[in-house]
Amino acid sequence: MSADGRLLLEGERTERILAFWDVPGRENVAGIFSKSASACSAVAISPAGNAAVGVFTRQDIDQSSLSIYMLPATAPGQPVWNRQTRPESDWTPGLVMAAVFSPDGRHLALAGSKGVSLLDVATRQSVPSFQFASSASRVAYAPAGDLLAVATPAATAAPQGRLVLLDAATGSEQASLDNPAAEITAIAFSSDGKHLVGGDAAGELLIWDVATRQLVVRIRAARAPDSQLSFTREGNRLLAVVNGVATLFELNALIARDQRLQSTTFEFLPTQQ
Predict the structure, then answer these.
(1) Are 227 and 199 in contact (CB under 8 A)?
(2) pLDDT digits over 24-51, tens only?
(3) CB atoms within 10 A of CB 263
């Protein structure tokens, strides 16, 4: 969703549709359908709300098509830029699974089967100084723009995948966070940048202290292979979407309860507000 709450960008994995929704008017203002793609795998809106990104993928040939659209919401129009990744291409992302704009809107981070690539939004060129060549499935920017959190998929060497913090300018690994159970399927930084929240495929909600790199909360949620996490604008509530069902959590309540129970796994009842 755009920062002003007026535009919602929806990528439908099974229907291969990228949809633009006018939130106040509750209407679909544009839709883009890809006949050849397997899915719309990633969407993102710039912090200023003046650009949107949609990624269509073809898993059979490990190819992604990335498009940038200029806004306003009422007239998304045709893409102003499009680029495809192919197996023989030296462009880093490969099959793109996640995309996110930097807080200042200058860069777009793309996580894919061949690694993470940083795109300069103004020039539409890859940032050569940024390098991270491990397969990645999720990516999130810290609010200050200095760190990227990257989740890697499960592999033989790491059956539960990895969650790492990277220098946002160079891609160099700053820390590997403890991931105790299963592959991370969603990540988001808190608005103050102090905490990183992750959802995993085993149905747990995990919260790390960014400064200490320690896991401070581990609670049972629901099985969430394709969960989505985001914080409300004021930053004190966490929205978790699992299989189309949204749940709102109070972040401070999560952290306080975990401190008393010393990270014991428990069923947490979300706020009803």
Answers:
(1) yes
(2) 888 877 777 776 677 778 888 898 888 8
(3) 15
